[in-house]
Amino acid sequence: MVMSSWFVSMKRILYLISMICVFGVFTYSRSTCLDQNGLNDAQISDWVSNDVRWIITTYEADSFSRLTSVADQKRFIKDFWLRRDPTPETDENEFLIEYCERYAYTAKFTSDIPGSITDMGRIHILWGSPDLIEIGKGRIDGVDDIAYEKWTYNYVFGLGRDISVKFTDTARNNEFCLSKADAAKLEPYFSDLKKGLSSVKQEHADNN
User: Fold this and answer.
1) Average pLDDT rounded to a whole number, residues 6-32
2) Structural domain boundaries in the chain
């Protein structure tokens, strides 16, 4: 009985420590993300592949890669967010604020790689929190007892209503990837985003 109580107490302590660590990463990532004018050289170097990986267009990424001075890169970054500001006449950039909230939350999906570049991180950054989450285990690609999460959204701009995606942990390493079917189904959508065919300002308007 004593050993069992000790084990339960240790589990609670470890859980609290993990939550504190996640909150710390969340706070740091959010504040760093919001301070786009204060990025250092290393952060600017990783900006395309890290900070804006899922929303920057191919044209924008190519344009940024041709810039050689830090001053020009910082000006580009400033203009990047201004183009996405749904209310440029105000001091706040609502798109940037919402984006940074989503980006910071992806720390929760970190496994062997940063949460922001996982499939879960990508969907959360693009679509926000799902309206419904189903968690379970099942037979995936001929293998039994594979953990999965199914996210359902009432509405996704550019895709419509009642959109669901399934993430599976087929490698059993706690990195949940889009199912093969959903990855194939969403490829044209992701391609359009890279071409700049989805209006982020309109998306923000639809969500408010």
Assistant:
1) 45
2) 2-206
